[in-house]
Structures are given as structure tokens and as C-alpha cells.
Amino acid sequence: MGRGTPRLPVPIMDNRVSMTRELAVREAQQIVRKSIQPGRSLVDELLRERRPEIAREAKVVREMQRADRRTRPRLKTDSSAGSLR
Question: Is the Cα torsion angle 35, 43, 41, 8 positive or negative in sign?
């Protein structure tokens, strides 16, 4: 890496390099941050990509619920007393 590039300390245990989860996440964030233009939001991009898929999934669920209501057996009630027959 070039000069001035921040390096994260990595603990060495039993002659092996060991990295905690927190250090691994921070290092990954630093790597990704280098390739992202200022002002660009990866979260907004992900949401924009997911919204149409979420809408399609919601439509399928509604259709399944309607089909379930049509095929579910209905209980008959005595309309004057409201009791089951």
C-alpha cells in the first residue's frame, strides 16, 4: 500500500495472524470506501434495486391470500340468531 494509507493493527497469536471480527469489518469498510465516490449512497442504490422485487413479492403474497380465502371452507350461520349450523 502507498504511503499515508492507514493500516489496521492485526494481533499475532501462536505465530499466526489473527484478526478480530471488528478489525475485519473496519478493514473491509476502508477498502470499499476507497472505490466509492463522495456523495454516493450504496444503501440508497440497494433500496432502489430492491423496491420492485419487494412489490412483486407483496403481490404474490396478496394473490395467495385471496386464493386461500376462496378455497377455505366457510361455516354456515343461522342468519337470525348468528349461531353455527
Answer: negative
CA distances (Å), origin 82, targets 5, 69, 73, 85: 77, 21, 18, 9
Query: 62: which 3 cell numbers?
Result: 396478496
Q: Are residues 51 and 65 in the same domain?
A: yes
Instruction: Enumerate the H helices of 1-85 as residue ranges.
Output: 21-35, 42-71
Report which of residues 41 and 74 the model is more confident about.
Answer: 41
Instruction: Judge if pTM exceeds 0.90.
Output: no
Report the C-alpha gap between 12 and 23 in whole angstroms. 13
Q: How many domains does the chain have?
A: 2
Structural domain containing residue 55: 40-70
